[in-house]
Design a protein that fits this description.
It is found in: Cell membrane. GO terms for molecular function: transmembrane transporter activity. It comes from Neisseria lisongii. This is MFS transporter. This protein is mainly α. It is 74% helix and 4% strand. The protein has 16 helices and three strands. Strands 1-3-2 form a three-stranded antiparallel sheet, with helices on one face.
């Protein structure tokens, strides 16, 4: 087989990966850029007097509408076309951003945030990227999206307080709206048009097979984990900015806390993930990430006495958060059946969005009635629950996922190809796409005879 084709991206694949990563990151920018400053801003709007619960709704309602619509819009892209659905979603997102910029009351801001979340194009973007990339490079293309999201999150936390001082939070929303309109032009003129759109089981959800994913206890544990991770994150940011304000750290200076915490988290995360993946220590690294966040939340529960303490706790928090954000999708990929990976990730992403909503609502209500202690006790309790579940869960097998187009000599002979591959050492499972044009292999990272498998598939 032509190994160099699997290593090198074609120019149109590179263009698709970079432009769609930007679009995907921009969707996240709508949440991340205002995350550190939104609660304080919302508290100053008419209708916010003694109504922290509504502030929490403004923080989290974005996640609710996103959770409700991201899978339906992904399915709509199968019927009406990828780019048409992406244009529609981005227009809705831009409208929500401009409405948020113009919001003169907390209730109006809640509506605007809900509208932003309704522009849920992530599933359609993923489907378009799958259409535009070969099996051999698709994992790399998808990882570019993950990297863009991680960078967007880190940059937003640091930049948002400073930018909000320059142009205001309403200016941040307006900027997001303008960038969204620009991204529509990018998709129209720079992102290639797919020659053929079809279902890609490795990247897209299959509603008819959703029940198979929901019956898998290992996957459900990971879905619970991403729910808790983002619920506790959103709850944290409903209260933490107010704590720093009370200590005399103005909003524009919050970057001084976020910058060292996020950079340290990113730097420490990289070697930990490498150790987890290459030395079969992924569960240990994963559990250590949960421990880091639990310790940080417990620390915030008992120690909001100084900016230095908050900085130290957030540094520990972001080490854990970055480890978990990187390791959770990897674990879903390892555990999910190869032909259900897209469905498993669809459920996973939905639970992430639901977590954002629940965290905003619970954080606002608890902050209103029980103050900082109520919020951080809630976050600590969630993390300790997750820790107990994770410790008892079995470690995922050290496997990797491979995809190959079925060559002409095997066309119509899927059963024969299955039997031939089953004899190869190190293969854990074999599955085929619905059209039988792609074979998915889940194989052990060590002990897998790659050369033998490729020889069989190529027919040499």
């Amino acid at each position: 087989m032509a190994k160099n084709n699997r290593i090198q991206m074609f120019p149109h694949e590179w263009r698709a990966s970079t432009t769609l990563s930007g679009v995907y990151a921009l969707r996240m920018l709508g949440m991340f850029l205002v995350l550190p400053v939104l609660a304080v801003y919302a508290a100053g709007l008419p209708g916010a007097e003694n109504n922290k619960a509504l502030i929490g709704l403004a923080m989290g309602v974005y996640g609710l509408t996103q959770a409700l619509l991201q899978l339906p819009l992904g399915m709509a892209s199968d019927r009406f076309g990828r780019k048409k659905v992406i244009y529609f979603g981005l227009i809705v997102f831009a409208a929500g951003s401009f409405l948020a910029a113009a919001a003169d009351s907390l209730a109006m801001l809640v509506i605007a945030r809900a509208l932003q979340g309704a522009g849920a194009v992530s599933a359609a973007v993923t489907a378009l990227l799958a259409d535009l990339t070969r099996n051999e490079v698709r994992t790399r293309a998808m990882s570019m999206i993950g990297l863009s999201i991680g960078l967007t999150f880190s940059v937003s936390l640091v930049a948002a307080p400073v930018m909000a001082d320059w142009i205001g939070v309403n200016g941040l929303f307006a900027l997001t709206g303008v960038l969204t309109l620009i991204s529509i032009a990018v998709v129209a003129w720079l992102t290639p048009n797919p020659q053929d759109s079809k279902l890609h089981e490795d990247a897209q959800a299959q509603p008819a097979r959703m029940r198979e994913v929901l019956k898998d206890r290992q996957l459900l544990r990971l879905d619970l984990g991403i729910f808790i991770l983002h619920a506790s994150q959103m709850a944290l940011f409903t209260a933490l900015p107010f704590a720093m304000n009370q200590l005399g750290l103005e909003k524009i200076q919050h970057w001084k806390v976020y910058l060292p915490a996020t950079i340290t988290g990113l730097v420490v995360m990289v070697p930990l993930i490498i150790i987890g993946e290459t030395r079969n220590k992924l569960k240990q690294v994963f559990v250590s990430g949960i421990v880091c966040i639990a310790l940080a939340q417990i620390g915030l529960l008992f120690g909001l006495d100084s900016v230095w303490l908050i900085t130290a706790y957030l540094t520990v928090y972001f080490i854990g958060f970055n480890v978990l954000e990187a390791s959770l999708p990897s674990m879903v990929s390892k555990i999910a059946p190869s032909d259900l990976k897209g469905t498993a990730m669809g459920v996973y992403n939905t639970m992430q969005s639901v977590g954002l909503f629940v965290g905003g609502i619970c954080g606002g209500i608890l902050f209103q009635h029980y103050g900082f202690n109520g919020v951080f006790a809630f976050c600590s309790g969630l993390m300790l629950l997750w820790l107990a579940v994770a410790v008892c869960a079995p470690a995922p097998k050290p496997v990797k996922n491979l995809m190959y187009p079925v060559p002409p000599q095997w066309a119509g002979r899927a059963d024969a190809l299955y039997r031939a591959l089953s004899a190869v050492a190190g293969i854990e499972s074999i599955a085929f796409s619905q059209d039988r044009q792609t074979v998915y292999i889940k194989a052990l990272q060590k002990g897998f005879d790659l050369a033998a498998a490729e020889k069989i598939i190529s027919g040499d």
